[in-house]
Amino acid sequence: MNPSPIDIVAVEAQGPFQLRLQFDDHTEQVIDFYPFLSRSRHPDLRIWLDPARFADYRLEHGELIWGDYELCFPMSDLYHNTIDHFKPRVAVA
């Protein structure tokens, strides 16, 4: 038996790059997208550091997206607030 998919039912801006997401199981997360975006070196991701562009998100079929799926995140990462998978480099002596 497969678990039911989770959908986002509401989004509210909390700061320039912070969004409060409410899921259909009543779970809520406030996610700060700035660390993820600011660490990216890819120009297609760095364009979303423009606050006006970032604020142009939408909910579509229970998913949070920007543009034509130019920026989107796995539902599991949003639900668990784990979008920032950055691991610091360990210096090797």
Write the layout of secondary structure elements.
Elements: E1 8-15, E2 18-23, E3 28-32, H1 34-39, H2 43-46, H3 51-54, E4 57-60, E5 63-66, E6 71-72, H4 75-79
Radius of gyration: 15 Å
Helix content: 10-25%
Low-confidence stretches: none
Helical run tally = 4
Number of strands: 6
Placed side by side, the strands forming the largest sheet appear as 1-2-3
Order of helix and strand elements from N to C terminus: EEEHHHEEEH
Gap from first CA to last CA: 50 Å
- Class by SSE composition: alpha+beta
What proportion strand? 25-35%
Task: Please describe what this structure looks like.
- By secondary structure, the protein is α+β, with helices and mostly antiparallel strands.
- It has helices spanning 34-39, 43-46, 51-54, 75-79; strands at residues 8-15, 18-23, 28-32, 57-60, 63-66, 71-72.
- The strands form 2 sheets. It has a 3-stranded antiparallel beta sheet with strand order 1-2-3. The chain has a 3-stranded antiparallel beta sheet with strand order 4-5-6, with no helix packed on it.
Characteristics of this structure?
93 residues; alpha+beta; three-stranded antiparallel β-sheet; 4 helices; globular
Brief overview:
Helix content is 20%, strand content 31%. The protein is of the alpha+beta class and 93 residues long.
